[in-house]
Amino acid sequence: MKLPGVHRGGPTVKQEGDKKVDRFDRSSPPLLAMTSAGGRSPDDACLISRLWLGWCAAIAYRGWSKPLHEEDLPSAPSGVRSDPLHRVAVELWEAELARAEPGKAQVLSGVLYPLARRSFYQGGALLVVSGLCNSVARPLLLKSAVESISPDEPLWRGFAFAGGLGACLLLEQWSKTQGLHIAGDEAILRASSAAMQLVTLKAGRLRTGVGSDGAEQTLLGKDLVGAADMARFLPLMWLCLSSLVGGLTVVFVLSGLAGGLGVLVMAGTFFASEETAGATRELLDGAKVVKFMGWEETYLAHICRRRATELTHLRTYRIAINVVVQIGRASPIISILCTVLVLVLTSPDRFRADVVLPIISLFQINMLSLPERSGRRTVGGAGDVEAKPVDAVSDVSLSVRAGELVALVGPVSAGKTSLLAALWGEAFVRSGKHAVAQAAIVPQRPFTIAGTILDNILLGRPLEPDLLAQILEGCALLDDLAALPLREHTEVGERGVTLSGGQQQRIAMARALYGRPSVLLLDDPLSAVDARTACVLLDAIVRYVKRGWLAEPEAGPVARAALVSASQGGHLHAFDSLLLIEGGAVTAHGPREALLASGSELADRLLGAAAAASLDDLPEASRSPAEAAAALAKAAEGASAAGAKASATPPGGVSRLTTAERRQTGSFSSGIYTTYLRALGTASVWSYFALLVLTYSTFLLADLWLVRWWIGDAGPAAGLPTASRAGVYSGLCLGFIALIIGSSIFFTVISVRASAAMHRSTLRRVIYAPLGWYDSTPSGRVLSRFTSDLNTVDIKLSMDVDNLMHMFFQAATMVGLIASTTWVLAVVAAGVFAVFCFATLVADRSIREVRRIANNAVSPIMSNIAEIKVGTPLVRAMRLGSFFAARQSAAIGAWARFSYLSRAMQSWSAHVGGSLAFVFGVATFFFIIGNRASFGVAEGGLALTYAVVAPYFINIISEMFVQLRTSMAALERLLEYLELPQEPPHELPSDPPQADFPKAGEVVFQSLCMRYRPGLPLALADFSATIAPRQKAGVVGRTGTPPTGLIASTAPMDPVLHQGTVAHNLCPFGTKSDEELASALVRARLPADLLGTHVSKNGSNLSSGERQLLCFARAMLEETSILVLDEATSNLDENSDAAMQALLREEYAAKTVITIAHRLLTVADYDTLLVLGGGRLLEQGSPATLLTDPASVLSSMAAALGDEGRAALLDKARQAKGRPSRHTPAHEDEQSVRVPGVSPQADSVVHTRL
């Protein structure tokens, strides 16, 4: 899948005579292009090939010769293709919603049933045929065949019944496998695929904060994927019902009352038969906070505690299910025992081999119809979910007309963001009306997808190169793109990890302008940029609204307006009118000058800031499209030339940020098996095998005792009364039942323990992985392993192992008994077994590879749903839902395609196994009938009975082996994370930290070089600086320079909050008292009673200012000598910012404070400023000294604030200079933190834990 306009080459605009060469590649593949080079669709196969799934043989042959890749596989059949299927599903869902009663949750059955109905009934009809062959034709034919063993019967009659029995077996196996493929593969995948798409659409309609954190990822990655696997056997109900009805009739015919009692016992047995994901999501979203705060071990223990709770329920569930399943597996023995006892007591004359053995075979076969796994999943209703509304704003009346530029102004928590959210449809509007023309939004927290810069601007819209070139210039992105190796084709990474906050904000602005909307709704768009860039962005907004910038040439006069939330008072002079908001209500409305003249205290406090540079002072930025494109090309060429001269880009070119997901090929590594066996425990594994041997030895002894009972006086039963014989047989049967249940419970306990150990080991590796790995690995890829794959390991893998071992030992017992009757059958059994093993291995090699591809296909689904949830307001407001829905539909279609092929290969393998079992069964039938003189009726009848039953077990073993191998693919993906790169240890044994380190808090950088990832230019080059103990140091630079990369921040630029209470977000692990938490809130200028307030997903029910203050309070809870703040107050109004800086001066007077800021006024009263540019330290000194130096970089940055703003900045700096300094000279510090330099060629990032 490739996004439009994405290619590996850079800009190519140039003029060749009068011909303009387009710098953007218009020949890029379409968004949802998908090619199947491996072969045609299964729909194109011939009739016989479709009936026997013979087209899978080509895949098996290809997979035997080489590892399979996506291009080697055929496309999906028309029944499971996503485009038509999802289109019909959405139409059915909309019709369902139209019929639904208001206030009632809707269910998906009305949508999924019509989609799966036809295939479900077609497959069901075949399964009914299989059930009738199983329960009617086969027992009657077996009864006649056993009777023909007698020398009194004609030989031709025995051969005829043997041939009929073989044909019955073949028809039964074929109809079962093909019916299960149609009803269990096609129908279930159609329903699962449609349900996934509907969940995606529903997630895009829910308001932010509704639903639990990680609910959608768990629903898609664990529940629906897991349900699709488990529901594959749902159509077996057709077989079970037909077998039950037919078998009931046959048993009553053969044995009367005794058989009826056995059936009742078996029928009764038949009918009897999100927090961990949320915590992992928190870890991935807040990886930087976890690492910078040193919370790795605490978070590991936190997640493992949740996991332990989950495993407690899992163990109980597994034991309950295994008891039911094993009772079901033992039910034939229970039924046979009841039948034998009643026959002996009521009808001794009917206790014969030709009566009992068909009943034994019937009960044994019907046991195979019972489900091997059981469970119930409940998925909540998909109807609209309403959260309890909270009035954030009330009684607001507002009208913004064409050509107007209106600002929302107010303190933190005033309701500015809530008002904008109501306009773009995110907030709940309880009363009143609002109408907004075509709108584009820029939220406080910029939204990015895991793609390139170009992808994030277009979001699926057609590429218009001239328009894009103008927007890039107007949003001040030209210099940033010129510094990037691939310019607009540079990957931003998940959550925009490769971009600064200012770059993300300007990309969001470019995205909004690209659609030429009628209304701009901008929530604090200037908070993360420097003063000069803010002026450029403000100029772009003014030109767009008032001067018709970006209007289409043939369009007439355009009507545009903008409503902007502003936290910086210096730019308010550019707006036509201001809305003053406090406490959720509009207190004043009018031009800035009028509001100031009104004498309002709030207006003086919020609007009294000095005006920034006038628009007239800015250079004219309006260029023609050709001039803008040429400027972009020139900037790109300059960047290329600079890159050629410098050594910033390492040899080997630019690597991709988001690496392709690793997929193993070939057979499973032996390490996978040894890791699993070690997790189970060597002693436990041997104990389990001993239990199995004892269990099926008891099973064999019970049947042999029954034969000796028929023989009468011969053997160990000679001379025993009937009651004693019945007692021994009953004891052996009951012992088998106890052992089969006990062995499964034992394996359940050790497998749950193994799951816990493997989860903890992989989670530890993830937590201690370097930040670069988090940046290059989509969270959906990680979550798919800790949801769908972990769920498979927890439940399906262990159940598959247990089921396979039981089936193997039972089949081995039967085949061994048959082979023991004569060496000829032993040779036949060995030959068939060899061919069976080879065929299974051939099929398994391809199934394994296809299953790996299918497992990897879950990751894009998880990543897409995560992006949709984060970007829901933007997607809904800008009507971009079709782009995200189409992208998710393509991802779900890929998963459905590979899952279908994997299941089809399993069904084809079952056809092969069934055919081989048929050969063995027929050979046994004819040999026993042909050599009936060598067998008694009892011994020959028992061998013939097992020859009928054994093929079923062999076929089931083949299917279970393939299922086990597909489950092993999930274990393989999970254990891949045991090989993740790890951070260096926090403490070196050779240099242990002292207890009071760092004592004074000096920070020294010596020749520091770093880059964000291999292939990118150096973010810091030969950087050296010293920050003295207890000094207040500010780090500033133009937007796009990497001051954020300077130090591992403890109060990060992007506030990271999780779903839960405020107390949970301040201290996720409960190590601080409520008094300490309340004190931190008060110190951060937040009310103490906020402690129990619920925080929605991503803190969406809080303003950006409140989120920043919460993160500030969280940082203050950590006792440290050094506090680092990364744009921690960028979303606060200037008065709140000043209050926080005063708090820092008071409470952190004896500590070192390092603040990264774009707002110069924030750090104007600091002891020293570090000015960065181009990855180097340009200058360092006190703010007053640098501002009074006309040649300084800081002085030129301050010029963008205007004369009044620069004067206010200088005045604040001089006042600070007059205050006594508490910092200690560097030479007085006995303990210093030193960041060693790395060579410019190194690709590592230096992190310092302070």
From TrEMBL:
User: Keywords on this record?
Assistant: ATP-binding, Membrane, Nucleotide-binding, Transmembrane, Transmembrane helix, Transport
Membrane spanning segments where? 236-265, 319-345, 685-707, 727-750, 825-843, 908-929, 941-962
**CDD domains, per the entry:** ABC_6TM_ABCC_D2 (cd18580)
Task: State if Zinc-finger is listed as a keyword.
Answer: no
Q: Where is the composition biased (Basic and acidic residues)?
A: 15-26
Where does it localize? Membrane
A Pfam family for this UniProt protein? ABC_membrane
Membrane topology per the record?
Answer: Multi-pass membrane protein
According to the UniProt entry, which residue ranges have a biased composition of type Basic residues?
1215-1224
A GO cellular component annotation in the UniProt record: membrane
Keyword check for ATP-binding, yes or no: yes
Instruction: Supply the SUPFAM superfamilies for this chain.
Output: ABC transporter transmembrane region, P-loop containing nucleoside triphosphate hydrolases
Query: What InterPro entries does the database record attribute to this sequence?
Result: AAA+_ATPase, ABC1_TM_dom, ABC1_TM_sf, ABC_transporter-like_ATP-bd, ABC_transporter-like_CS, ABC_transporter_C-like, ABCC_6TM_D2, P-loop_NTPase
PROSITE patterns cross-referenced by the UniProt entry: ABC_TM1F, ABC_TRANSPORTER_1, ABC_TRANSPORTER_2
Q: Where is the ABC transmembrane type-1 domain?
A: 690-966
Q: Where would I find the ABC transporter domain in this sequence?
A: 365-608, 975-1199
Q: Name one GO molecular function term.
A: ATP hydrolysis activity
Tell me which domain of life the UniProt entry assigns to the organism this sequence originates from.
Answer: Eukaryota
Annotated region (Disordered), positions in chain? 1-41, 1215-1250
Question: What name is this protein filed under?
Answer: ABC transporter
Q: What is the lineage of its organism?
A: Eukaryota, Haptista, Haptophyta, Prymnesiophyceae, Isochrysidales
